[in-house]
Structures
1.
Amino acid sequence: MPHIAKNSLLFPMLGLLVLVSFSLNVSFGSVSIPFDQITDILQNGPDHHWSGQIVWNMRLPRAMASIIGGAMLAVAGLLLQAYFRNPIVGPFVLGVSSGASLMVALVTLTTLSLGFAHVNPYISGIAALAGALGIMVLVIAIAAKIKSPVILLIIGLMIGYITRSVTGAVIAFAEAERLRGFLLWQMGSFAGITWEELKIMSIGGVLLLSGAFTISKPLNAFLLGEDYASTMGVNVKRFRLLVVFLSCALASLVTATAGPVSFIGLAVPHMARLLMNTSNHRLLIPASALLGAIITGVCDLIARMVFSPVETPISGVTCLFGAPIVISLLLKKRTAS
Amino acid sequence: MDLAVGYGRKTVVAGINQEMLKGQFICLLGPNGSGKTTILRTLSRLLSPLKGAVYLNGRMLNDLNSVELAKTLAVVLTEKLSAGLITAFEFAAMGRYPHTGFLGKLSEEDIQKTREALLLVNAGDISDRYFNELSDGEKQKAILARALAQEPEVIILDEPTLHLDLKHRIELIAILRNFSREKGITVIVSLHDVDLALKILEIVALVKDGAIMAWGPPDEVLKEDTVARLYDLDRARFDRKLGTIELINSSNGRTAFVVAGGGTGTPIYRILSRSGLRLMTGVIHENDIDYHIARSIGATVICEKPFRKIKKSRLRRSSTLLEKIDDVIDSGFPIGSSNRRNLKLILNAVEEGKRVYTLRSRKAAHNLYGESAEKLIYCGGCRSILEEIMYRET
């Protein structure tokens, strides 16, 4: 394996960049806070400074969420790209985000939840999770019956279209002032995330990411396609269900906390492949997770700072900055199919 | 019960009941769409049998778990592979899949086995190059190495020579024969090349019209009429002794008469037949290669028994045929006591004012034909004969 020597340096560097991105996210914001105060808060808790609440309950969970969420989205995208052997597949291709959107639209735009929304501040998160997981269960049920990856992919896309059309109908009848909130949610944001939400997302995230790492061997076998993989000893059906479960669950958890953050899951796996110069998933999974964390962290920082104090949606930033990077990487190096 | 294979409700090949032994080199021959791939996919468990069952070492294929199966059986499929950013070595190392642990980390032994496999298929030099950047021939070697690294008892290959040129085709078949002879691996392969099959393989199975038409050693199975039936050949003919397939000379256009012998006629037949000329040839001995080629491309052949002096009656028959023909070719055949009379054919043709093309040098022609040599048309090679004929036609 000729890559390993070179890559043994890359991983510590990526790890370092994750720390840098994290520190930047904690240090900067619409309110400027002296650096020594921030370190003091991080060491001794939020109670000694006027800025304690801002750093401890806003910046810190948000920085961690963007880093963990980014890692989760990138790996979710990588899994599906490997399974479908298709480079333009992302984590939401099986309809997870559209399911979440539909549920969020139903609870925030209609009168179904009238009065209820004010009782529970987590209502849109819970709705998103329910919608995303609902779609995931549906897709897994289909994946248990369908053998062809391509057909599964098309069914996933169709489910997306159906849920989106219902969402469209809901939007058509919605009140204008509520609509803005929904549209912004649809473009994703790590703002306002609580420690509770972060805890759920991180525990789930760490478990699912470890799960993804354990299937790196069959993922590699799938580089040669399903037929070859099965003749090499991959239990294809079990693998298919595992991939669908892991990727959809990863994407669902992030969507529930931050909305459908686009682009990360599609682009980061490409960056990882080009950076590492390999398709070996034992290296690609950690590399994608780290890169996803760095890029999402930096993009969230930009989203907050560029029109500060007004926030732009993170998907706007990820696409605007990420797409040119991917294009230039692809043009410079061999294609990552 | 006999094995029947196919997709869904559609049976493709039925009534299969065969035993394949360790170390045998078995080849399925048959036209496109005859069901070779379907049979191989069923043997590889990529398809379930419609009826009956496949047994491997006495156990039913369906009873094996996927890792057990992968340790006994490796498969090479026809699809063109694009494998992402991995090197030929990493690609071949994929064959270690059923042997490696949970995370697929390669042990020293795995690396050693992979190297050996690459060396055995003459691919040691491409290990570090990216798989997707290899040529088709090199890719096929890496694919073979992967199958070998799996350390199987059986390797099944579907049309492994499909995208290869002649050199790589022969090399690949030689490697496969090596697998079966030296490693004792049973090789089951589907091929298109009847010529290669006849010369190299141990067992051939002819697949046609939903059944195995014949099964056995190629010299017993591959007869002229079976091969013609197998491929529905009406525009080509298979010559068993030579193991070659020739296109049948079926044009109704101009006719040329080739006086040949000793193999000198073969290249001329091929080039003229390809260009649409009708061919007659004589007088040729039945043990001559020219005889076999001329017959299999469907030329009119006037022949003589082996080693016998050409009879006058044959010469007369040639002259009758020559009456209506304007172009006569002297292939430059070697002359001995048995075929000396062929010179007479050429001399007569010159006297009758026909165009006679020769591949001999002027000096040799003078020695043989004397005065008449002046009227010959001298050609440097087969292609220039064709050019001369075409030129004079217009």
2.
Amino acid sequence: MPTLSDAQRLSRAWRRKNPGRLKKPDPLLWTLNAPAVLLVLCFSVLPLAYVVYLSLLDTPPGALAADFAGPSNYRFALADPSVIRAIWNTLYFSAASVGISTPIGLAIALLLDSGIAGAGWLVFAVVLAWAVPDIVNAMMWQWIYNPTYGALDGLLFTVGLLRTYTAWLSTPVSAMNALIFAYSWKLVPFAVIILYPALRSVPHELHESAATDGAGAWARLRHVTLPLIAPSLAVAVLFGVVWSMRAFDIIYILTAGGPGESTLVLSYFVFAQAFQFGDLGAASAVACILAATTFILTSLYIRALPSEKDAA
Amino acid sequence: MNAARARRRSILAKSVALYLCFAVALFYLLAPPAWMVVSSFSPDAELYARPPHWIPDRPTLRHYATLLQLPGADAVTISRNPWLHTFARSFFNSAVIASASALLCVGFGSITAYSLSRFPRPRTRRRLLLALLASRMVPVVSVIIPIYVSIQKAGLIDTLPGLILVDSGLLIPFVIWILEGYFRSFPTELEESAALDGCSPLGIFGRIVLPLSRNGLFAAATFVFISVWSDFIVGLSLTSSPSAEPISVALAQALNPISEPSWGLLNSAGLLAALVPAILAFLLRGMVMRGMLSGAVKG
């Protein structure tokens, strides 16, 4: 039950004494709010509405004037094997990236939480990975995956795991997995940032009492820690999925959707269709499908967010 | 006696396992950027070696000299990599776009965030905030076509103001979301007493709330700066010449030269591009680790 603080009581008394004083909208305050509201409208709300509208037009490639076409763009898009391929690739890319980065992020968060000597180095590494721009990340991995002089081939060859140098980005299956591995590196710090505060909030006494009951480290992790941080784990997974739907830079640099269509994802399809082929109708229809999917996932994400925010 | 020894041994085994995990984690996170650093200091002869020279025998600053066109630059490499002439320009462009967007977003976003945080109806406020977040979690690529069309109609394609406008517009929802929570966690007692003294809402915001929330404003500004610095798709879609190109687009073009890219040069360019956000993030590492600089991550 929320109790009335002194301040609240005071302010109510004040409002009773000065009726209309706070309710009267301050014109200056309204004016000052206008720029932010306009920016949100122009770049978040209207573009979404406009892309829905565009997706319902029959737009010949290259032209901007068009007739209303109803859902035909969607029908064509969903009949296009490239789009179907992109949908499956997007699902696989997101699921695998999150499947790799969340356990690694959890492990790093656990290490940080264990108070290990040298945790400062790990913080440094996490912060560094978090700060590296996506495009630099893409470049870094392109050099690591280089088929002639790459560090990955060199390492595996030196250790004896590889007989000959391999062009990881040139065959369909390995290209997709190399892409996922490179993208996960960028996703790990986000998982750490979500999970580490959650781990820190697990009360120490619980660990101690579980330990005196004879629970080993593994049992404590499974039966004490994980159930307690399950909500944050859900936040981390959903955030990772929504975020990996945005992945674009790394695909643009490393594979451009290839070889063939093996790494074509929805975000890259939209960009290529719109800016390289000038097919705005199909691009908009797929953009809407992508937006709707992330919208649904985001509403799950928002539901998973801790609601202490609204305690007031 | 034996039991104590066994326990000591198991503690030892545990800490060995712990440090093994620690080493693997550190290697996983640091090896890729470390390889970039090593490569940027390796002379070409060692850069293109099989297996790689993990530690160069003769480290060189030549790639940096070529990149920045200082004395000691390699003239042949410069002639093969025309992007070098506009690299400094793109660095400057990114700095301008990111700083201006940070100022715009925090300047306008803070007022709206404050208004929302003192919004009298909690349910409506929560709905507004969630709608704000949901609309912006949609991938940028989904809305880039309408944005391209409108920026083109406004005549702002390939201009710095155009990029500043779009980047600010795309990030201000996150800024409102970050700052709203920050202002709400603020005690209202001070404001109440200022109101009793006859201070206007705007006066309260300007004289009491803003000075006391320097940390939050700074975190939000840094978040915008780093996000805009890292943006690629907006820059790629809305620029067509070096006059407005941000650093990310310049790097992407450097990766697609006519001949085989010069990897020593690329690694040094990439490192310089990553240095700005890395230094900022490291100075504010406490905020980074609490998720304060990650927009939607904040719980």
